[in-house]
């Protein structure tokens, strides 16, 4: 059961789309509210209570024992104690004797103290007086999550090709660079579905432009690649360069579509293109206009995009540059001062007529950019589009996916990728993934292979790295055939992975879950964070340590152990309990639950070549419900499911 409580005059966030009954304040049972600034909501935890949720935050799947802050923020140093990442996902579940969830629906800063002092107190401090609080009661943690997923609406549905392997790097500048990446994948037999274009494809980093010298005929080039089954995915940044004569800039200024500064003129912030204005994405007419701008890309045949710098990230502002920054609070221990100051320096005009500083509605900015792009692309294209954003808020999951930003080529970041997946799923973000191999720093052969073995199971499977780091395309390393094996596993599993993703989205379930959600009565399963359930049949237990030749795996029930290597799949049935499993770098081991099936297809060079229907069945089950469509129709429904039976 879900109920909501209103405090003050909440800002419309569009997070919840289903009707939820409104209660009186006196009916709030799970929290004690303390008025004030900030206002706080607290409760006492049971000794063994687990806290799930909070989407894109650091640390493990159980969030208990630390503080987290929702204040979207571009910081590439993903250390365990970093309080804020790029997204604000204010939903969590307390799971113990009983299970309940809470969603603090406010776009302003929220601090979640999840028992950091160890005295069993959970407290949530909300900077704004205006908020909606949703409380969910359920039978267990997963039941609570499913009710929540129901009210926030269906996940974005990407096309099939978005489930292929993507190669990306900040540093591919020209058509030649991209062609070389594609040719190398072909040469080494490594499957590939798309290549991302980072900021260098633009003319001087200006949104909605194409550098004509680097891509003389983007439409022709895109069409040629499509024939090979390869898509291009350009980046779009949040700020519009101040440059009279640039149509998008001129239109935005003329129509009053940009955020304002203290003086009421268009706010200026320096980002990649130099000084820019920020579109006021919180207004519908601005979103409609911004979404329309993607036409210059869709006219070139492009169908996939990534939105960046939309926390928004700011290098400098007009005030900082002039040294005339207005007075702001000092000494916030949680955020560098400039980030608070910058966001207090510009203003949105909401559709309800109110004016709010960005600081007050901060966490909605990236989400509303995603919404603008998603709705625009939906109007422009007669098929499904790929979109993933860096910044987000719950609700944005209906318009696009997210990637987890600027991680690094370290084993901790690989582990964090594993922890992020179920937490993001709980908050609606099913289409997600991390920069495989790591964005910052130098990757290496072992790390990339182990990382691919995880990314095989994440909806977004993209190898991305930063400029000035060592190149980490699969073909750069010794024995590229090992990389071919791991990437081709992805394609062989797509009949299952795509089906499970689509069913989860259409039924508003999670796609990747913690073990405890499928085995709520199993005390040991409740403690395990480095194994995950993927769809209804599969459990993964990835190797996350350098030099490890294997690991201990916990099986809550008897399962089929599947090993995939250069000679295909081998299966053995194994009993419940702990088990030591060895896996060389060029093999992936995963598990199929008792009585379940996994359909696997033939190897393919990309999804265009893949036949989702030409499958064999692995596992001990007798039937599997497989979702199959053309990979691009907008009319997706459970009627696309076919039942597969294991032959006796
Ligand atoms: O300030 O476009 O997270 O994926 O490669 C860095 C360049 C801007 C940050 C993104 C990253 C991207 C990079 N961008």
Order of strands, widest sheet: 25-24-22-18-14-13-12-27-26
Low-confidence stretches: 326-330
| Strands, count | 39
β-strand amount: 25-35%
Number of helices: 15
Structural class call reads: alpha+beta
Radius of gyration using CA atoms only: 24 Å
Present as ligands are: ligand MIG
Q: In one word, what is the shape?
A: globular
Mean pLDDT: 96
Alpha-carbon distance between the two ends: 43 Å
Give the % helix: 10-25%
Q: Major beta sheet, specifics? A: 9 strands, parallel
Structure report:
Helices cover 24% and strands 26% of the residues. It is built from 15 helices and 39 strands. Helix 5 packs across helix 10. The radius of gyration is 24 Å and the shape is globular. The chain starts with a strand and ends with a strand. Mean pLDDT is 96; it is low at 326-330. Bound molecules: ligand MIG.
